[in-house]
Amino acid sequence: MSATLLSVENLVVDYQVGRETHRAVDDVSFEIATGQTLAMVGESGCGKSTIAKALVRLITPTSGRIVLNGVDLAAMKERELRPLRSRIQMVFQDPYGSLDPHLNAQEIVGEPLRLRGVRSKAARHAEAARLIDLVGLPTTALDRRPQEFSGGQRQRIGIARALASKPDLLVCDEATSALDVSVQAQVLALLVEIQRETGLTYLFISHNLGVVRQLSDNVVVMSRGVIVERGPTAGVLEAPRNPYTRALRAAALDPTTIHGRKPRHILVPAERIA
After folding, report:
1. Around Cβ 17, how many Cβ atoms within 10 Å?
2. Which of 135, 149, 150, 132 is nearest to 191 (CA)?
């Protein structure tokens, strides 16, 4: 069995909304083994993206532990955390807003290399070119800026930028949901191939159960900030035990819930699932 790379223990994240406190994530725990993919599913607002932001410390958890290779990142001060940030990288949902429009592709991918201490500009450019090639873009892409690329190509650049940090864990937060189906398939195939070649570990956050079935080893299902079901992906999706998971699966199979470029799930209210 693979060793545990990431262990999230009793994670709590609160937001202040006016004078009130909203609990977005409530006592969540899970593990991811090295070289495997854990999918996290649930409807919008269930806490998936909040967990992703907590893992990469874009937000600070209220309590709990985020243990990566034996090191707890949750309570670290920024100065302590800075040298460890490269170990968890994120691919964001929006391929249009997540890239600096003033930099070309080579500079975007090369920036994490500079932060890693690669001082030679020639070395940064050579490694950026290798990563751009790895994600399936031509060398002619190196000098082009984000506005000159399609959504799928931008997402490939985002993946290359994340890989430049040589992370142990890649967090993909709805990384294919803004893409057309054919482009989505290409990006998913790329992620599978990268994992096969490098042994990279993924946390894949999605609302699309078809994508989750294709990509992940295990899955956790979230509703209203808590995990309601977990287990091997095939078992959970084929024979869900929790009423919420069954509703999620039924919505995914209903063609009337598919609109535009990506599936969107119409779920019955939680009080009707109980």
Report:
1. 8
2. 135
Domains of the chain, by residue range, sit at: 4-273
Phi, psi (deg, nearest 5) at residue 62 = -70, -40
Cβ atoms < 10 Å from Cβ of 78: 9
Fold classified for 4-273: Rossmann fold (3.40.50)
Give the residue with greater pLDDT, 166 vs 183: 166
Q: Are 88 and 167 spatial neighbours (Cβ–Cβ below 8 Å)?
A: yes
Whether residue 31 contacts residue 7, with contact meaning beta carbons closer than 8 Å, is answered with: yes
The two beta strands, 37-41 and 218-223, are parallel
Contact status, residue 168 vs residue 68, Cβ threshold 8 Å: yes
Residue-wise pLDDT for 219-228, tens only, equals: 999 999 999 9
pLDDT at residue 95 tops 80: no
37-41/201-206 β-pairing: parallel
Residue 5: pLDDT above 60?
Answer: yes
Q: Give the helix ranges, DSSP H, for 116-229.
A: 121-134, 151-164, 181-198, 209-215
Q: How far is CA 230 from CA 20, 103, 206, 242, 249, in A?
A: 31, 41, 15, 10, 14
Q: What is the pLDDT of residue 261?
A: 40
- pTM for this entry: 0.85
Compute the CA torsion angle 204, 207, 73, 131 (nearest 10 deg). 40
Distance CA 228, CA 220 (A): 8
